User: Which sequence fits this backbone?
């Protein structure tokens, strides 16, 4: 844990951000400073060079997986601040998810318990149980979540190994740690879809590579995309906004393309994938059902639960998000893709 210097006189409430050096966390730092808010930037390994020139960013090195971080974090967080918890593991490695996502969340909650600190948790669309949602439906905050047995709290690693996929299980249990905490109040849970932006223009909900050929699994369903700057803006707005109890919001872009539209825009702006074949979801689903006896040894999109979670045609309204925060997106989908490509090639 690094030493903490006093925060520069604030023009607004302090926003602490875990995972501040990561994809989402660093965007939250930028958005907070754009709005004139001082930031406590929590990072594990390396502070970003851009922070050093800004006196209203206080870097703090912390390994949130270690219990020693609890008291140090408690001492660093001022009363009346907000904390955006963006630190998490993005892969499927059970041990990393248990430590970097779940243990880190437990320590963050221990550091904020009993304090006047608003918590904003960055969760994921992955928590929804698409096995209990019909194709063509609206996926909303009221949609069913993946099962969570009581034993998951005492044996998280065992639960992650049995979940639809380990990442989805980790986000489901991460949310439950907050929602089942009797002391939790004035907190937000944000569930973005596929977060994209400069440096990450592609996503995992399109299909799969077969050597140099990309296979799109197509349908008329929307892509639940969440542009990076939009996610950051919603996170900062939530950090500034009191709420009663725990409020849950899906965070999706206003302009949500089909997979065919995404493919056209990405090819136009980035030039790839050059070779693509599109197979309809309605054809792919019965084909993989024939492979069910082999599913344990097959990649994700060859297994029905993961296929339904990533590809099944659905609609993704952001009505509740827009009721809470009424600003508009920065551009149309094609405009955002052009902005993304321009920044990536600058």
Assistant:
């Amino acid at each position: 844990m690094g030493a903490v210097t006093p925060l520069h006189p604030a023009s607004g409430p302090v926003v602490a951000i875990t995972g501040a050096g990561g994809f989402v966390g660093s965007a939250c730092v930028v958005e907070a400073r754009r709005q004139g808010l001082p930031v406590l930037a929590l990072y594990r390994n390396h502070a970003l060079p851009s922070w050093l020139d800004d006196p209203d960013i206080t870097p703090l090195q912390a390994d949130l997986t270690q219990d020693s971080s609890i008291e140090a974090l408690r001492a660093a967080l001022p009363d009346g601040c907000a904390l955006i918890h963006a630190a998490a593991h993005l892969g499927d490695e059970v041990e990393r998810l248990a430590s970097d996502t779940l243990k880190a969340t437990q320590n963050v909650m221990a550091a904020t318990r009993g304090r006047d600190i608003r918590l904003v948790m960055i969760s994921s669309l992955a928590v929804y149980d698409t096995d209990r949602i019909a194709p063509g439906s609206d996926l909303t905050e009221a949609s069913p979540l993946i099962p969570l047995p009581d034993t998951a709290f005492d044996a998280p690693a065992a639960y992650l190994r049995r979940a639809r996929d380990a990442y989805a299980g980790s986000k489901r249990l991460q949310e439950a740690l907050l929602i089942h905490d009797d002391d939790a109040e004035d907190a937000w849970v944000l569930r973005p879809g596929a977060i994209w932006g400069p440096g990450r223009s592609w996503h995992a909900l399109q299909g799969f590579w077969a050597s140099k050929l990309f296979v799109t699994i197509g349908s008329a369903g929307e892509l639940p995309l969440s542009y990076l700057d939009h996610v950051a803006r919603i996170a900062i707005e939530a950090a500034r906004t009191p709420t009663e109890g725990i409020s849950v919001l899906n965070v999706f872009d206003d302009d949500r393309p089909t997979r065919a539209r995404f493919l056209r825009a990405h090819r136009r702006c980035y030039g790839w994938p050059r070779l693509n074949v599109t197979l309809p979801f309605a054809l792919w689903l019965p084909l993989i059902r024939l492979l069910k006896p082999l599913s344990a040894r097959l990649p994700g999109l060859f297994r029905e639960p993961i296929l339904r979670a990533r590809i099944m045609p659905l609609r993704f309204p952001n009505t509740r998000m827009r009721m809470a925060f009424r600003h508009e997106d920065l551009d149309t989908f094609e405009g955002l893709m052009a902005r993304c490509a321009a920044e990536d090639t600058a």
Summary: DSSP finds eleven helices and twelve strands in the chain. Residues 1-10 have pLDDT under 50 and may be disordered. Residues 94-112 form the longest helix (19 residues).
